[in-house]
Structure formats: structure tokens, C-alpha cells
Amino acid sequence: MITAGVDQKLIAQITTDDTALIWLTDQSKTSAVVSKITANKDTAHIKDVLSYSSTDKWPFNNPANDSLVPDIVIKPEDGGKKIAEHGGFSKEDTNVALLLSNSGIKKSEQNTKEVTTSQVAPTILKALGLDPGKLQAVKKEYTKLLPDFK
Q1: Could you tell me which of 145, 86, 74, 75 has the C-alpha nearest to residue 116?
Q2: Pick from 28, 118, 34: which is nearest to 73 by CA?
Q3: Which has the closest alpha carbon to 80: 125, 2, 17?
Q4: In the chain, what's the furthest Cα-to-Cα distance?
Q5: Which residues sit opposite 74 in a β-bridge?
Q6: First and final CA of the chain: distance in angstroms?
Q7: Average of per-residue pLDDT across 124-150
Q8: Is residue 138 scored above 70 in pLDDT?
Q9: CB of 36 within 8 A of CB of 5?
């Protein structure tokens, strides 16, 4: 179990499928919970244990200011039986092949840079002549358009 050794009263909610998301009842205990889970990494086949204060890779807003944001994200080791998860954080979940077609794009233009699925919606809005900056996610997460898209 990924939360072995953690006082279960500290866990307000947990979702486990591919990536685990944990909300705590007491956010001041986040570092202690991260330490307990990290100590169990090898046994539980965990690749990364992330929290707002423990990493610069945090993919969300500060959970202290947004109750929808989990306090801890647990990424499993690569190579599990599942290869994709809607909303997961593995490379297979966030980096996908994408073909963009628009009359304003020259046929010879090709981009081989990695992009994430979060960049698709603001790029579509821009292509439609709408302001992607009006999306809350773009404002809060500073999501960029797909590379080289103007």
C-alpha cells in the first residue's frame, strides 16, 4: 500500500489508479507524510512523490490556496500494465502525437518538439481568433501555445 506507515486519519481523500492524488486533513503534516511515503518507494513501486513545497515540478496551484488541488501526487514507476490515464502525469499521458491542420500553416512547417496536452486548448482558441488568455487554466498555470504557432 502506498500510504503504509501514514496515519490514515491524515488522509482526507485519496485517488489511486495510475497516478495517486492525496488530500490531507492537516496540510501542516505534508512533509511528514511525503517522508513516510518516500521511505516506502521501492516496495510500493513509486517513481516520484511530489508536493507543493518539496519540488519545483509541482503541476498545480498551491493546495493551501485551492482546495481542489491535492496535497501530494504520487507517480508510479514506469512499466506498469496501464499505458495511459486520463489526467495522469506519466509521459504517455501528457505527451501525445499531434497533427495540427490549418490553412494558415505552411505545408513545410514541422515541429518535432515535445508538447503537452494542456497546450492544445489555448492553441485552438488562438486559431479561432479568440483570446486564450481568458481561460482560467492559462491564467493560473501560464500555459503556452504550441511551439511556433502564431
Answers
A1: 145
A2: 34
A3: 17
A4: 58
A5: 20, 49
A6: 47
A7: 84
A8: yes
A9: yes
H or E element, residue 12: strand 11-16
pLDDT grade for 22, boundaries at 50, 70 and 90 = very high
**Which candidate, 89, 7, 17, places its Cα nearest to that of 48?**
89
Helices (H), ranges, 13-135: 30-39, 41-44, 91-94, 120-127
Mean pLDDT of the region 40-49: 89
Phi (first) and psi of residue 24, to 5 degrees: -105, 155
pLDDT at 80: 59
For 51-75, how does the pLDDT look when each residue is reduced to its tens digit (9 = 90+)? 998 888 787 889 999 999 999 999 8
> Cβ neighbours of residue 85 under 8 Å, at least 6 residues apart?
17, 18, 19, 93
Total H helices, total E strands in the chain: 5, 4
- The C-alpha cell at 86 is 486520463
Measure Cα distances from 81 to 18, 39, 40, 78, 85 in Å.
10, 24, 21, 9, 11
